[in-house]
Every structure is written in structure tokens, then in C-alpha cells.
């Protein structure tokens, strides 16, 4: 979570495992594509920075954030990936649509993460304003995509350590 005290792109590089050989599925919402595109760029750059190969990063788009649940579910069920990252952005408007989309997507991704055999990383920005979204996709608070990539790497490593124990 970004705050004035925590930048999404600040982390201890030495505490991130090597991502070489890890396979990542990324589902990206097309809605608010300027924001989600920047989040995707941050995630991919961070995965590569930690050793993931381009061939091991597979990206698919879905129309909006609500569809992240179905898209992520298909990626999980494909058994081609070690983790799935769901990237979207919902900005509050004048109707309750924001609340329904945020709640449905959050609950859907949480349920999927609970049942899946691989981690499903929550990369949904839920912002009150466009400026808040811009601050979190490479602006003053860093890039949530970076944070999602690091989380995916660490959760894959966590699972692998448990399997080896």
C-alpha cells in the first residue's frame, strides 16, 4: 500500500529471490489503459531486473477490472504459470459503480487466490482521483506494478521452499 511514508517502488533488492526459471502470467485491464499500461511496464521491468526471461512472462488483456477475475482464473487453470498478477485501475466516479466493481473484483481475486495452487497477486488500484492513480503508476508514490512483481517472485519462492521442506 502506498502512503507518504512508503513508496511502492522502494524495496530491498537483496531480499528478492532470483526469478530465473519462474513463469509469470499477467492479466491487464484495458480500462484506464494509460494507468494499467504503466503498471504493466513496471511489473515486467521488475521481473526482468530480478532474472525473469521475456519468454517466461505472458501478458493477456481483458476489457475491464471486473474481468480480471475470469482472466486470472483461466491463467491459473492453464497450469502454465508459477504466479498470476492481476493489474487494473478503477477511479471513483459519480455513481456506485466504483464500489461494485472494486468489491466484486477484490472478492473474486481473493477467492481465486484462496483456491489456486499458485499465488494470484492483487494489482488493482482503487483510487478516488486520476491523480492518485498517476501517483501509483510511476509517479510520486512509485509503481504498484513493481510491488506486484516483487510479491509474485517472493510468493513463488515461498511455495518452493515449502515444497522442498
Write the layout of secondary structure elements.
Blueprint: E1 24-29, H1 33-49, E2 57-62, H2 68-78, E3 83-91, H3 97-115, E4 120-127, H4 130-135, E5 137-139, E6 142-143, H5 144-164
Parallel strand pairs: 1-2, 1-3, 3-4
Antiparallel strand pairs: 5-6
Helix pairs in contact: 1-5, 2-3
Please summarize what this structure is.
This protein has 165 residues and is of the alpha/beta class. Helices cover 45% and strands 21% of the residues.
Element pattern in H and E: EHEHEHEHEEH
The 3D shape can be described as globular
- Compute the average pLDDT: 93
Largest sheet: 4 strands, parallel
In spatial order, strands of the major sheet run 2-1-3-4
Structure overview:
This protein is α/β, with parallel strands linked by helices. The protein has 5 helices and 6 strands; from the N terminus they run E-H-E-H-E-H-E-H-E-E-H. A 4-stranded parallel β-sheet has the order 2-1-3-4, sandwiched between helices. The protein has a two-stranded antiparallel ribbon with strand order 5-6. Helix 1 packs across helix 5 (144-164). The chain is globular and about 50 Å long. The model has no long low-confidence stretch (mean pLDDT 93).
Key features?
about 160 residues, alpha/beta, 4-stranded parallel beta sheet, 6 strands
